[in-house]
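pasting for the record
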Amino acid sequence: MPATSANLGPAFDCAGLALTCHDVLEFAVLPSGLEVSVSGVGAGELPADESHLVVRAFRAASAGLGWTPPGLRVVAENGIPQGRGMGSSAAAVVAGVLGAWALCPDVEAIDLDAVLRLTTELEGHPDNVAACLLGGATLSWMTPDGARADRLEVDATVTPVVLVPGDTLSTHVARGLLPDVVPHGDAAHAAGRAALLVHALTREPGLLLEATEDRLHQRQRAAAMPESLALLDALRGQGLPAVVSGAGPSLLVLAQGSSGAGGDPSTADHLRTIGELAPPSWTVLPLEVDVHGARVLDENPQVSSR
């Protein structure tokens, strides 16, 4: 299950990007009971009972399929930082729902549209779950029948770099800082930049600095993550297309990789600049775009999702 970064600046609640940082989940039907094992990120901290988010998502999907396994084993190897705006909860929800679909004896094939609708209901919005499920960059939207999403091919020169602080931030707290109403000018600005973002991500990465300008949500959350916003300004001041990753406090830089020929900054140059600007307590993660999304590696009687 890939990590994801949502919003990408102006495309609030509708754009997401899958990243090559993963949780790996294994599911098996048992004769009875529940076994939950967690290693890696969250080991010793996450619950090992019915309250675990993966288990809750699995149960919700099983109920929708009209199937109840006699017992369940979940083994999680977590690599996605939690509470830092990298889609850890979306990965858990997608894993649980896909696990139920893959193990259900009455299901011949996984219905990705149905999975997207249910994971959106469980997560609350589709941007992270769509990217986690489909891979690449995604655009998602709501209809009377539920969530829809489509996938974009990201230009091969775009190099995602995530900067992760030591502190966490609750998505609920971050969203609570947003105003109920925004000025018309800010809404128009967001619409224009979100449209430009699609073009920049897929065809003209040189426009990403302008395309990632935001007025809707990043500055409004500054009180909850002042260090993140200060670093955001420093990165953008150096010409790097930096955004708050999801609800924060991590940041995502959509650097444009190059060989450095012709005097243009190379990927190594960008990473050096990012490393110099990042506070010592932050972790810099050079990643790639995950083009596969969530994958079921082996079906009944045990399934692994990545």
